[in-house]
Amino acid sequence: MARQPRATADAPAEQLGLSRNTVQARIARFERTGGLGSFARRITPRSLGHPLTAFVTATMDQRQLADVAGGWP
Fold this sequence. Notes:
Layout: H1 10-16, H2 20-33, H3 65-69
C-alpha cells in the first residue's frame, strides 16, 4: 500500500491470498480507526538534487515497552 496507495484491493488480495472483500473490510477498518496515514503526494529530496540519508536511533527502558508501544499488540 505504501508503494501504490491508490491501488485497488485486488492487488494486495492476490499477494496475500485473501479475498478482495476481506482486504477491503480491513482497509475500511484501518480508515475508521485512524490506522492509515495520509495519501499525500510528496516530492522526494533526491528528485530536487538533495539526496537524503537519515540515521535514527531510539532508546527505551524495557520496563516501559507497553507505554512506548501505545497498546501495539
